[in-house]
């Protein structure tokens, strides 16, 4: 298994800081969710046409891969549907240039008054359109277990309606578990579709959840990694540490070394 971190963990770092830290700490790759404040990745400085060749050279020199491009695409909102399709296509084009295997999209929400069946159909339509666009590029479009789309039942319902071979699942460890689904069930039902993971932890309380360092919360990360190992998963274990959205979290100078130390022990067990 390969180890990466998502750039939400280091929202104030320059691209050069991100590359240097990833290499120095022994990471295999980086997952992109905003760079230098720009969330629409094709507009981020390192990925502009005049800079992308140097970016690829820098990644090669550091021995790093880009494992996934994380978009804001979500298909539950009819008004934003076309914008999400356009963003997804732009992300696929950039993933091809960066030799990245995946882009991430959301479901994401079942709005009040809408039916699950209706929203599942919209999400399936969006996945199908992006999946067809990605076919033949080497890029797979991944639906994250996130928001209201957080359990195997609804995700399988969506995938059953998705007509593309370039669609899969990103298993965010925290969301299904904290919504009451045991990891063994999530994995058993979604295993054929799981291509990538987000390693994430949180403490669940009466007022909701509070994100935390991996290993300090309620998510059974060792158990989940063990399930993946036992079943021959050889993909990425990518830290999703949402410092950008949760400023109370530890700085990347703390969180990134801590994750590497923690996850390496699990991988090597």
UniProtKB/TrEMBL annotation:
Pfam families: AP_endonuc_2
GO molecular function, one term: isomerase activity
Residue ranges of every copy of the Xylose isomerase-like TIM barrel domain listed in the record: 20-251
Gene3D superfamilies: Divalent-metal-dependent TIM barrel enzymes (3.20.20.150)
Protein origin, superkingdom: Bacteria
Keywords: Isomerase
Coiled coil: none
PANTHER family: BLR5974 PROTEIN (PTHR12110:SF53), HYDROXYPYRUVATE ISOMERASE (PTHR12110)
Protein known as: Sugar phosphate isomerase/epimerase
């Amino acid at each position: 298994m390969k180890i990466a971190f998502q750039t939400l963990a280091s929202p104030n770092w320059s691209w050069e800081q991100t590359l240097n830290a990833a290499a120095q700490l022994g990471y295999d790759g980086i997952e992109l969710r905003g760079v230098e404040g720009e969330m629409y990745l094709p507009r981020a400085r390192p990925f502009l046409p005049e800079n992308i060749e140097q970016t690829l050279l820098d990644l090669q020199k550091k021995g790093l891969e880009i494992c996934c491009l994380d978009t804001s695409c979500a298909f539950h909102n009819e008004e934003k549907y076309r914008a999400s399709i356009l963003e997804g296509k732009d992300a696929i084009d950039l993933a091809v240039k960066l030799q990245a295997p995946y882009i991430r999209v959301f479901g994401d929400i079942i709005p009040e008054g809408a039916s699950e069946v209706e929203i599942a159909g919209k999400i399936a339509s969006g996945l199908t359109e992006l999946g067809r666009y990605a076919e033949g590029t080497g890029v797979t479009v991944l639906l994250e277990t996130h928001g209201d789309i957080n359990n195997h039942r609804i995700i399988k319902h969506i995938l059953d309606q998705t007509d593309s071979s370039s669609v899969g699942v990103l298993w965010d460890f925290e969301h299904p578990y904290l919504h009451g689904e045991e990891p063994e069930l999530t994995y058993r039902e979604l295993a054929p579709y799981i291509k990538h993971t987000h390693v994430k932890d949180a403490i669940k309380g009466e007022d909701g959840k509070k994100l935390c360092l991996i290993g300090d919360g309620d998510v059974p990360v060792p158990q989940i990694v063990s399930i993946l190992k036992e079943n021959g998963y050889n993909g990425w274990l990518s830290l999703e540490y949402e410092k950008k959205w949760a400023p109370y979290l530890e700085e990347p100078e703390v969180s990134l070394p801590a994750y590497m130390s923690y996850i390496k022990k699990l991988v090597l067990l």
